[in-house]
Structure formats: C-alpha cells, structure tokens
Amino acid sequence: MVQIPARVLTIAGSDSGGGAGIQADLKTMLALGVHGMSVVAAVTAQNSLGVQGYWELPAEAVAAQFRSVVDDIGVQAVKTGMLASPVLVETVAGLLAPLRAPVVVDPVSVSKHGDPLLAEEALDAVRTKLLPTATVVTPNLFEVRQLTGVEVRGPQDMRAAAEAVLAYGPSWVLVKGGHLEGEAADLLFDGTREHWFRSERYDNRHTHGTGCTLASAIASHLALGRDVPRAVAAAKDYVTGAIRQGFPLGAGIGPVDHGWRFRG
C-alpha cells in the first residue's frame, strides 16, 4: 500500500531566481520527505543581484488557492513568507485563524539584498492579525526591530526580543541571531522554556534563502509529528548544512544548497 506523505502548504512569494520564496520552500519540503503545496501571494523579478520588482496577487486569488488545497487535500502544517501588503496579511491571517494545523510564520520584510518585500503599512497587520495565528514565528534581528523596536546587539538581548514578539500572541518565537558576530546562535522561547541552538559559522556569502528554508524545514518537521523544540533542532541542522554548501550563481549572492544531503 502506498503511504501518503505529510502535507505542508507554503503561502509566500515566488522567487524567479529559485533561491528563496516558494521555490526554496518546495525544495526544502522535498528534501525532508513531505509533500509541498503552494499558495502564491506575490511574484518577484529577482536574481542574485537583488529584487527588480514585485507584484502581489489579488486577495481573492490567494484565498481561492488556499481553499482549493486545504478543503480537498488537507495540510499537516503551513508556512507563511512574503505577503507584501496589509490586505494580503489580513486575508491570510483570516484563513489561518480557524486552522488546526501548526503554522510557522516567517515575517519577511526585506530580501537578502535589502530590497523591501513588505509595505510599511502592513506591519501593524502582521503584529495584530498574523502573529496570533503562529505556532512558531521566526524573525531575524532586523524583523525583531521592525516589529517591536527592540535592538539586539548580542545574545544577551535575545531573551528580551523574544518576549517582545511573544506579546503579540504566537505560541513560540525563534529569534535568529545569524547577523551577530561569532557562532550562529538562535533562541527559541515560549515565555517559559528557553532553548538555544548553536552552530558553526561558515565563511560563505552564498546564503540567499536561509530564512525561507529554515521556516519551511520547521514546518516540515512539525508536519512529521515532532514537537516544536525538536522540529527547530532538526531544521537548524538542515539549514546549517545548506549554508555550508551554498554555491555561486550569477554575479551576486548565490543560494543555499537545498539538496546537500543528496550529494553526500
């Protein structure tokens, strides 16, 4: 008898360069043994040098994609990424609120090159509508500052940052410390339990797609039945390997290697 794999849905933007966004999400899901499905919220013109433009889809198209997948196929976990505008953030939050599956929110606001991917006026909707739906939210330090005003200058500030994000209602917060000096240390916190995940920092500039990849890996492991700390630990291990094997494409920043485990 054929076994049906766990099903994970990504709601995010398309990356024409293939390194981040929905493309990275689906590659990650395949690598981790789950069936990936997608709701395209925005389309980007993007390459190794940056984002040349993006176009959000109508809210009704996003909702229709979601209902089409969830009502027929079902999901064991959902990951959100680039949502671009207040109306899309509010639409997706409304769709996720009654869902019983775990939700991983990557609060994407800028690209690896510093290009904006979220309208400034959408931040309040992220705080008040989207974050309360999250099982896990995965902000980097720039996103923490945008959402809460908390400045993280070192690992000693990450607990306060996590508490500030938790105040908006997610169950867990993973504050990513990848932009700090030294080892790559991330803090997972639910208001009581504190888990640190540390890994070696690799001298590799080809790190496009790390945030999308990590969030998708967490969602995949949650869909496979792991609890949040174990899902984050497994996802951190996967993305660390992908960063180590990141490769050059084009004239700018190349992607992480989503298939690194297949190459030995």
UniProtKB/TrEMBL annotation:
Keyword Transmembrane helix annotated: no
InterPro entries the record matches: HMP/HMP-P_kinase_dom (IPR004399), PM/HMP-P_kinase-1 (IPR013749), Ribokinase-like (IPR029056)
Keywords: Kinase, Thiamine biosynthesis, Transferase
UniProt keyword Secreted, yes or no: no
Catalyses which reaction(s): 4-amino-2-methyl-5-(phosphooxymethyl)pyrimidine + ATP = 4-amino-2-methyl-5-(diphosphooxymethyl)pyrimidine + ADP; 4-amino-5-hydroxymethyl-2-methylpyrimidine + ATP = 4-amino-2-methyl-5-(phosphooxymethyl)pyrimidine + ADP + H(+)
Pyridoxamine kinase/Phosphomethylpyrimidine kinase domain boundaries: 15-257
Source organism superkingdom: Bacteria
Coiled coil ranges: none
Pathway noted in the entry: Cofactor biosynthesis; thiamine diphosphate biosynthesis; 4-amino-2-methyl-5-diphosphomethylpyrimidine from 5-amino-1-(5-phospho-D-ribosyl)imidazole: step 3/3
GO molecular function: kinase activity
Function: Catalyzes the phosphorylation of hydroxymethylpyrimidine phosphate (HMP-P) to HMP-PP, and of HMP to HMP-P.
Protein known as: Bifunctional hydroxymethylpyrimidine kinase/phosphomethylpyrimidine kinase
Annotated organism of origin: Yinghuangia aomiensis
